[in-house]
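Researcher: I'd like a candidate sequence for this fold, 641 residues long. If you have to choose between options at a position, lean toward the conservative one.
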């Protein structure tokens, strides 16, 4: 489903392009950073050595068979040990890596999937082992310090064919949660706190149909109303016997979720949340509300499912390690994450200021995630990722594109890991509602639309005054990958697009002016994102309960809600069908291609709105994917084979 040759050519072209660019990485904190010299050599860090899979083409073919009715391996999912034996590293390859570590005073633990070796040691040991200086940098934007190699790693020749990536030597804070506040909430410098009575509206997660709530104050009960989940609840389908996993980079307060469910009158399974710490675990911080939302939404739609929360530090190898652990444990039937970063930031250590940095071809996180997702798929675990909240221009929220000298332009981009063809990318819509801002007139959105706040921008420009607000480019993430080729399941889908031409990532140096850092491939037949969408616009958004954000609040949205909602929905489908669902994508594209839209379809076509570039239209569009769900109809299709 992807082209190794394409990735090699792209990586090579990036190396040539970036060789002449001066240093200072654009990654987590995104803005330039200052090299302050050699890092603390005594600091102990965790490092993951990711090993290449074997027989990957056969693995991809087997995955397709697991979700193809009539195939001899239909729903014949593998165990972790089967996966390791068929596709993991060999004993000889593992011995070579272990010997290399031993020679450098290190030791490692082979993970159960034989895809990685976990080790720890001092920065001095790793610097010597891989023959690269490791320096401390300070972000010019946040003032946060981090460490990373200043040169490409040098590996022994016997390891170059088996070792895919060394993850953890760079601990830049890179991934962001995909959550947004409503415009009115932003204007008030924070979401409005809701009275406890607002949370007392009954949920319909047990078949109790209720009237639709208030836009901006929706609950999981409203999600059930919007997307026809209630017939499943009426049959006693509530997630019992299923397990969902959340992969996150912030710890959270369990009471947030339980208070949310109690507040909406939702009975849930008792003591069904388990935290699993990876690489020392994450901390309670300003993003902890993201994890609360993930648990509230997934567990609210599947209230009797077990919930595993894998949390790791938002630095270095934390994200991939946490996701890998969720897959190796293989307890979860379905996994979601609401964190990501622009796909193109994985291409290279893009440089904009000062010291030398030759590590310019790092796509290791993309490739590592891909291998993890392949394992999840062949084990029957469904995976979901938020597609982002910057519309078609995914770098904008990270880079502050185009606002002042020293900033960046805004190429059309997609988010990672949502752009990987082996994860289901969760996009966003706006459900019908009426709106008014400040002294302007009341306007309405009459049909569910691709979420993009250009409709609000246009409103302000016309009725309040141009320059009163800048909302570019808030909306549901979507577009065309320039790394992953178009997967087979999108070949026959009406509306699939190629990448746009003349897209570059450029930096506006205060002295030298605009500098081109990256030229993106034009007319590339890439994987299209998202796959499906649900309501995500904060203006038609949700109530959350988050201690770090002030308790019960409304006016929250983002594709961060959609990914865990799909997670919870999959737990219902797991119970309804009696088996794991597996990788969604080949199955849902087949259903849409064959059966289209209509009363008995599993999908609702989204033909209105846009995400600042891609407009809703008949069939697929890179704003809402193949559309929103009719969950009860989807359950019928999945359970009919």
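Model: Candidate sequence:
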């Amino acid at each position: 489903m992807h082209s190794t040759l394409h990735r090699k050519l792209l990586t090579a072209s990036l190396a040539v392009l970036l060789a002449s660019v001066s240093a200072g990485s654009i990654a987590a904190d995104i803005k330039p950073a200052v090299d302050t010299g050699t890092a603390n050599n005594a600091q102990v860090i965790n490092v993951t050595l990711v090993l290449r899979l074997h027989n990957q083409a056969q693995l991809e073919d087997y995955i397709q068979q697991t979700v193809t009715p009539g195939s001899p391996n239909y729903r014949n999912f593998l165990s972790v040990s089967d996966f390791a034996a068929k596709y993991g590293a060999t004993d000889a390859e593992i011995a070579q890596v272990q010997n290399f570590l031993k020679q450098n005073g290190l030791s490692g633990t082979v993970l159960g999937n034989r895809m990685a070796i976990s080790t720890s040691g001092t920065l001095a040991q790793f610097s010597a082992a891989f023959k690269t200086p490791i320096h401390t940098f300070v972000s010019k934007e946040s003032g946060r310090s981090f460490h990373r190699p200043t040169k490409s790693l040098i590996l022994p020749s016997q390891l170059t064919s088996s070792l895919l990536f060394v993850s953890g030597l760079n601990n830049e804070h890179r991934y962001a949660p995909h959550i947004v506040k409503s415009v009115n909430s932003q204007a008030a410098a924070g979401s409005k706190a809701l009275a406890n009575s607002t949370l007392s509206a009954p949920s319909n997660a047990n078949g109790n149909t209720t009237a639709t709530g208030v836009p901006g104050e929706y609950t999981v009960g409203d999600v059930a109303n919007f997307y026809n989940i209630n017939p499943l609840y009426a049959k006693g389908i509530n997630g019992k016997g299923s397990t969902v996993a959340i992969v996150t980079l912030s710890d959270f307060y369990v009471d947030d979720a339980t208070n949310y469910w109690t507040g909406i009158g939702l009975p849930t399974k008792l003591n069904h949340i388990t935290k699993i710490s990876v690489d020392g675990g994450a901390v309670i911080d300003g993003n902890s509300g993201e994890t609360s939302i993930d648990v509230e939404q997934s567990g609210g739609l599947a209230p009797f499912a077990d919930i595993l929360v894998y949390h790791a530090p938002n630095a270095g190898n934390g994200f991939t390690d946490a996701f890998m652990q969720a897959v190796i444990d293989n307890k979860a039937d379905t996994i979601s994450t609401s964190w990501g970063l622009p796909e193109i930031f994985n291409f290279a250590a893009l440089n904009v200021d000062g010291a030398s940095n030759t590590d310019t071809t790092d796509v290791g996180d993309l490739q590592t995630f891909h291998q993890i997702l392949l394992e999840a798929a062949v084990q029957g675990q469904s995976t979901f990722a938020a597609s982002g909240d910057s519309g078609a221009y995914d770098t904008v929220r990270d880079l502050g594109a185009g606002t002042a000298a020293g900033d960046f332009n805004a190429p059309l981009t997609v988010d990672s890991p949502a752009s990987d063809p082996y994860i289901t990318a969760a996009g966003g819509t706006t459900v019908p509602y009426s709106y008014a801002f400040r002294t302007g007139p009341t306007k309405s959105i009459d049909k569910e639309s691709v979420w993009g706040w250009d409709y609000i921008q246009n409103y302000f420009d016309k009725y309040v005054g141009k320059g009163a607000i800048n909302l570019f480019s808030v909306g549901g993430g979507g577009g065309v990958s320039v790394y992953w080729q178009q997967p087979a399941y999108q070949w026959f889908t009406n509306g699939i697009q190629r990448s746009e031409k003349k897209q570059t990532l450029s930096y506006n140096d205060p002295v030298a002016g605009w500098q081109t850092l990256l030229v993106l491939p034009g007319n590339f037949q890439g994987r299209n994102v998202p796959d499906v969408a649900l309501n995500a616009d904060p203006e038609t958004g949700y109530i959350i309960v988050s201690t770090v954000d002030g308790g019960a609040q409304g006016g929250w949205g983002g594709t961060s809600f959609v990914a865990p909602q799909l997670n919870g929905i999959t737990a219902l489908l797991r119970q309804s069908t009696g088996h794991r669902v597996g990788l969604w994508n080949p199955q849902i594209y087949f259903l849409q291609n064959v059966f289209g839209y209509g009363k008995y379809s599993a999908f609702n076509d989204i033909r209105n709105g846009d995400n600042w570039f891609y407009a809703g239209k008949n069939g697929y569009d890179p704003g809402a994917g193949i559309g929103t769900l009719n969950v009860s109809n989807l359950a019928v299709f999945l359970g009919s084979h």
